[in-house]
Amino acid sequence: MPLQMLGTELAKRSDALFRSIPPKDKSYVTVAVTKMNGNTVIAINGRAPTTAVKRLQAIAKANGWIMAPHNPSLPPGVNHAEQILYNFTGGKATSIGVSHVDGPKDYCIPFFNGTGVEISYTGVWK
User: Fold this and answer.
1) Are 120 and 97 in contact (CB under 8 A)?
2) Measured between alpha carbons, how far is 121 from 96 in angstroms, rounded to an integer?
3) Are 92 and 39 within 8 A, CB to CB?
4) pLDDT tens over the chain, length 126 residues
5) What residue segments make up the domains of the chain, in order of their start?
6) How far apart are CA 98 and CA 93, in angstroms?
7) CATH dotted code for 3-120
8) Measured in whole angstroms, how far is the alpha carbon of residue 80 from the centre of its chain?
């Protein structure tokens, strides 16, 4: 699948996962999704509420997906879902779909400069 098509697919999946988050938690959550060796791999940001983390863990388990370990003690700057996912894959992710209530954050993108990773959003911020 061409990279751009994969990015769109992953962004749509991240949006679907984001919609499963309890409404009271959405402003604190970023969801990231990639595919590795045919497996769906997901991550949530380090400071996400426990209820949101548990919701994604249950969805991942029910679907046979892999979820990156949640670590609420990660320092700012490395606790973004897409960074956690990239690091969890050992830097092998080529495309990551992301969903956040406010859309893309400029301060997240520099982490990926020079990596060749495609970061995709759908344009739906809810």
Assistant:
1) yes
2) 9
3) no
4) 555 788 899 999 999 999 999 999 999 999 999 999 999 999 999 999 999 999 999 999 999 999 999 999 998 878 999 999 999 999 999 999 999 887 767 777 777 888 889 888 886 554
5) 3-120
6) 13
7) 3.40.140
8) 8
